[in-house]
Amino acid sequence: MQLYDELVARGLIAQVTDEDEIKELINNGKATFYIGFDPTADSLHVGHFMALCLMKRLQMAGNKPIALIGGGTAMIGDPSGRSDMRQMMTTETINHNVECFKKQMSRFIDFTDDKALLVNNADWLMDLNYIEILREVGAHFSVNRMLSHECYKQRMERGLTFLEFNYMIMQSYDFFELFQKYGCNMQFGGDDQWANMLGGTELIRRKLGKDAYAMTINLLLNSEGKKMGKTQSGAVWLDPNKTSPFDFYQYWRNVADSDVLKCIRMLTFLPLEEIDAMDSWEGSQLNQAKEILAYELTKLVHGEEEAEKAKEAAKALFAGGGVTANMPTVEVSEADFAERDMDIMAVLVKAGLCESRSDARRAVQQGGVTVDGEKVSDIATAYKLANFDGEGKIVKRGKKKFAKVIKK
């Protein structure tokens, strides 16, 4: 099976500008393509995961990736998928985020020996002459057509700033610049970027009389149509200091039954034949599929050693075996017991399982708290420092939130 057909079989491709040309380019390793990442945080997250995996697949087939960091476009902010204006960031914050992205991308993309490029659009956008851009680029964009695109339509009711209105022009100019400077002939991105990407192909055609191509990939949505990669506490990050490898593993281990095979097909590098054989799995086999998904993705992001640790920690917690040392751990010391023994509410807050004592009170009263597998139903239940000697105690709130509490 050739690469393009595999992307279709994995459910990745959403829209393409010219299917035959794109097939020819990527199947034969002739594509120099780019995907843009706006540095709106100091870490990539699960929302970027699909694009990073696509870049890896294409590079493995001999194509050349360009990872474009939007140090310039981040000064404006993409209105796509937004109901309000993004918070404006300082140049210092953007530059810091750019450096963080570079480190994380190297896990997916091989930048050695000119096999891939990493560029920052601040290098050309920040020095543009406003009048020149209006004349040379702005003249090729129809306001009526721009406003017909969904990324702008959904903002019109609440107000679309002129600042954000320029985002499509800036992204289109990126493609134009990369086409001229690096021979970049394709742009890939999420399906919500389709209008911006078409703007780039059209600008290249109008200004240079040449063809360039665009392909969007399906957004990672769950069975309810909501974007994956969000939890109650926020985004699922690729930075281990923001989302631990164990929590990352657990996120994928806990996806819905209806989503697990789709995620394996779209995100892992397992052979399609192996994945197709899972289509008939049900019941306990779906739990096995979730473990496969969690392990493969954790290995991809954090390495095999961390994936093994996360797997063992999950086994210790949920199956009564494995190595408890790999669990998320919180230490308690004499200072925590200076005034009195720690009641269960204080333990829950200390372990980060509850935001406040009132939150902890509700959790206990609702029957969702256990310590070492025993349900705690009395909010007055208290512990001495010695209770956390040795291996400590495993404290759980609900089915998915837990920590091992040990004596410092």
Describe the structure concisely for a colleague:
By secondary structure, the protein is of the alpha/beta class.
Can you describe this structure?
The structure is a single chain. With about 400 residues, the protein is an alpha/beta fold. It has 18 helices and 15 strands. It has helices at about 5-10, 20-25, 45-60, 90-105, 120-125, 130-135, 145-150, 150-155, 160-165, 165-180, 195-210, 245-255, 255-265, 270-275, 285-300, 305-320, 345-350, 355-365; strands spanning about 15, 30-35, 65-70, 115-120, 185-190, 215, 230, 235, 330, 340-345, 370, 375, 380-385, 395, 400-405. The strands form four sheets. It has a six-stranded mixed beta sheet with strand order 1-6-5-2-3-4, sandwiched between helices. α15 packs antiparallel against α16 (about 305-320) and α17 crosses α18 (about 355-365). The N and C termini lie far apart (about 55 Å).
- Helix proportion of residues, in percent? 40-55%
- What is the gyration radius calculated from CA atoms? 25 Å
Globular, elongated, flat, extended or rod-shaped: what is the shape? elongated
Output the strand order for the largest sheet. 1-6-5-2-3-4
- Give a count of the beta strands, DSSP E runs of length 2 or more: 15
**Average pLDDT across residues?**
86
> If helices are DSSP runs of H or I spanning 4 or more residues, what is the number of helices?
18
In percent, how much strand structure appears in the residues?
5-15%
Query: Between the first and last Cα atoms, what is the distance in angstroms?
Result: 56 Å
Give the helix/strand class: alpha/beta
Please summarize the sheet with the most strands: 6 strands, mixed
Report low-confidence residues grouped into runs of 5 or more.
Answer: 78-86
